[in-house]
Amino acid sequence: MEGPSAFEKFFSDIGRVFSEYNDFLLTGLQNTLIISVGAAVLGLVLGVIVAIIKIAAVNNKKLRIPEAICNIYVGVIRGTPVALQLFIMAFVILAIRNFPIVITAILTFGINSGAYVAENLRAGIQSVDPGQTEAGRSLGLSGSTTMANVVLPQAVKNVIPAIGNELIALIKETSIVSMISIIDLTNAAKLIGSGNNMATYLVPMLVAALFYLAIVYILTFFLHMIEKKLRESEQHISDKKIAKVKAKTERKLARINSAYEKAVSKRKEAA
Amino acid sequence: MEKDKAKMPAADAAQADVFENIIDSVEAVQDAATENNSVLIQDAEEVGAEEAHANTEAQEETAPAQAKEAHRPDCDDVLISITDLHKSFGKNEVLRGVTTQVKKGEKVVIIGPSGSGKSTLLRCLNMMETPTSGTIIFDGTPLDPKHSSINLHRRSMGMVFQHFNLFNNLTVVENIMLAPVKTGIADMKKLRKKALFLKLRKLFDKNCTEEIPTYPSKAEIRKKALDNALALLERIGLSDKATAYPSTLSGGQKQRIAIVRALAMHPRVMLFDEPTSALDPEMVGEVLEVIKELAEGGMTMVIVTHEIGFAREVATRVLFIDEGVIKEDAPPKELFTNPKDARLKEFLSKVL
């Protein structure tokens, strides 16, 4: 008369989630990833554009109107809940028959995170010493060349942690797409656990949580790697790092030399 | 309008010579006048004449006779000519009418108490600060901070800052190469475009004899910049630091690299904005040595500094600035041994 113990049931449930309901799970994971990646790309692009407009508008009266638009955009997006934005997009603005609802979600979250990225990036650009811009301009470089080669690389280094936070928050925020009935990871877990299926929420929810954790961990790992790479120009670096930088720069310089030699030999051949 | 037009040709031809970029519009006006004008041309006339008028007027009214002399073509050894320069930050008027010139090969040292406007004056020279009023004529052309030509002028005005301002994200050699490579490539692209247009034109127009410009390749530009950068580093004895990031260098090394970074653009004048104020006393010497060497090489320089001893040694002329005006302007020997201005006497008694 001995039924399976709670432990055994737990593990067999995990097995069932992966075997019986793997299509739910895969659809959920796929949607979560598609929405997150799409929104992150859109958000970063929007954020960079808005931040640059805002910075450029300080010294340029022609950009007053674009700046005002950017200010309204950031203000409205940051001042309203993302769930509301999602509803407005899905049921008002993009309430078009057969419009792919995943695209709606990507647009909503992309526009949403764009506002946050813009503010982070603007703070990052402003945190770069104005002397850097001055030095670039004093050498005769144009404003945009100085921005692209000197200011932005330093600003990006400063904002990587903040942008990382924003991306992590974005991934988890996508779980509210269940409100417009997209099957993402969270919604899939809910469906698997419902009465029609397993009739227990514990295991599917735990599995979904593990997936979210794994995604965020992988992202954090890459962000750390990028940050470490960007920080190699900073003070108190070890001899080993100095040697590494030296080797890297020397390779760059060697490439310049070899490209030149190639050009010269090509010219000789032609002549 | 009629009056303006009459005034225009009468304006001193030599003066007009100086305003090269205005001349175009002036010529357009004169051409237009002969060709019986349309509405559009009238507009152009108005703008051009007004501009020229404003400039000649400003000169006639405000520039002292001495400054006017500088605008004559026979004084072409004048590199920078500053006329009645004013600069205010909000209500705070920092420069209250500075008029002077810098001749080729001159080493002008600017001294003065802090807050007197000496750094602002220097920063106005390459338009890092936009003057409130007044003109700066560099090598025959008035500088306009809003016009894109300002980037061309800045290339020939090297600037060294108090806080070095090396690009933190680039290694030393990349710091020196960045500007020559980027400006070189930009120039090359312009030439390439021109060559392409000319080639197209020659296809249709057999009589076109204009020569197709030759332009260097990107590889050549980079190689030249690299060789130049390494040579410059060799000159200041920092070849071994070529591949290091600025954050691993001492202040003196940073400043020496900042100097050669400016030199890499082959400037015609070097502006030094308190180059040694942010350095440890130990490192001041090595930086001054580089500047001195540069001075001996015949470079035109404008230096803002607190190093009176250095000023005495290097300067061919010393300006004492106080309360936004030049209080005294004399060769160093005269200025330091026999100061006339009361404020200068007080200043020297404190710093010497």
How many strand elements of chain A?
0
Q: Which overall shape of chain B is indicated by the principal axes computed on the Cα atoms?
A: globular
Estimated helix fraction of chain A: over 70%
Q: How many beta-strand segments of chain B? A: 10
Strand content of chain B: 15-25%
Uncertain runs of chain A are none
Order of helices and strands of chain B: HHHHHEEEHEEHEHHHEHEHEEHH
Global Rg of chain A: 25 Å
- Mean pLDDT rating of chain B: 81
Count of helical segments of chain B?
14
N-to-C span of chain A: 96 Å
**Largest sheet, strands/sense/barrel of chain A:** none
Derived structural class of chain B: alpha/beta
Fraction in helix of chain B = 40-55%
Order of helices and strands of chain A: HHHHHHHHHH
Computed CA radius of gyration of chain B, to the nearest angstrom: 23 Å
The backbone outline of chain A, from C-alpha atoms, is extended
Return the structural class of chain A: mainly alpha
Report the sheet with the most strands of chain B, covering strand number, pairing sense and barrel closure.
Answer: 6 strands, mixed
- Biggest chain-to-chain interface with counts: A-B, 36 and 46 residues
What do these coordinates show?
The complex is a heterodimer of chains A (271) and B (352). With 271 residues, chain A is an all-alpha fold. Chain A contains ten helices and no strands. Chain A has helices at residues 6-19, 22-56, 64-79, 82-93, 101-127, 130-138, 143-173, 185-193, 202-230, 239-270. Chain A is extended. Residues 1-74 of chain B have low confidence and may be disordered. In chain B, the strands form two sheets. Chain B has a six-stranded mixed β-sheet, sandwiched between helices. Chain B has a four-stranded antiparallel β-sheet with strand order 2-1-4-5, sandwiched between helices. In chain B, a hairpin with a 2-residue loop joins strand 1 (78-89) and strand 2. In chain B, helix 1 packs across helix 4, helix 3 (20-34) crosses helix 4 and helix 8 runs parallel beside helix 10. Chain B has 352 residues and is of the alpha/beta class. The longest helix of chain B is centred in the middle third of the chain and has 33 residues, at 172-204. Chain B has 14 helices and ten strands. The A-B interface holds A 129, 131-132, 134-142, 145, 149-150, 153-154, 157, 232-235, 237, 242, 245-246, 249-250, 252-253, 256-257, 259-260, 262-263 and B 126, 128, 148, 151-159, 161, 163, 165-171, 173-174, 178-179, 182-183, 186, 217-220, 222-223, 226, 242-248, 258, 261-262, 265.
